[in-house]
Amino acid sequence: MINILQHLDVWTSAVETRSTAGRGSSNKLNLYGIKKLRELILELAVRGQLVPQNPDDEPASVLLEKIAAEKARLIKDGKLKKQEPLPPITDEEKPFELPEGWEWVSLSHLGVFSGGKTPSKMKAEYWNGDIPWVTPKDRDCKLNCVTAI
């Protein structure tokens, strides 16, 4: 586990001078260290290394089984169309080792993808609620799946 805050003074003092040419050049310093710190935090979170993993957490495989069962039920009830399955994720497509209990999956394993028009912006529950929007082109995008999804 990495203690990011241990060297906060290093992260906040890393600055670079920007070019003074062009529009908006009045701010001549770029907080380079903060940008890199944000990138590091995101990278550690995606890899499951930001916080200790709880061995009591339900593994992602259980969540994926629940999702598959619900999708199968919706297909049987005629509420969803059956989608062509994507090939399994190969070892070459996995950029790093996942923590115990995590799994690599395509986005299509986690939801239903369909085309259509953009939902009405007049319905706040579509945009300010808990609906994560992706498009059909994201269907075969790979990501690591944790039980928090």
Fraction of helical residues: 25-40%
- Let me know the largest β-sheet: 2 strands, antiparallel
Give, in order, the helices and strands.
Answer: HEEHHEHE
Distance between the termini: 23 Å
In total, the number of domains comes to: 2
Low-pLDDT sequence parts: 144-149
Q: Report Rg.
A: 21 Å
Number of strands: 4
Shape: extended
Strand content: 5-15%
Strand order of the largest sheet: 1-2
Number of helices: 4
Describe the model.
This protein has 2 domains: 43 residues, no CATH class; 86 residues, no CATH class. Strands 1-2 form a two-stranded antiparallel ribbon. The protein has 4 helices and 4 strands, in the order H-E-E-H-H-E-H-E.
Short description, anyone?
By secondary structure, the protein is of the alpha+beta class. The protein has helices at 8-13, 32-46, 60-76, 124-127, and strands at residues 16-17, 29-30, 103-106, 142-145.
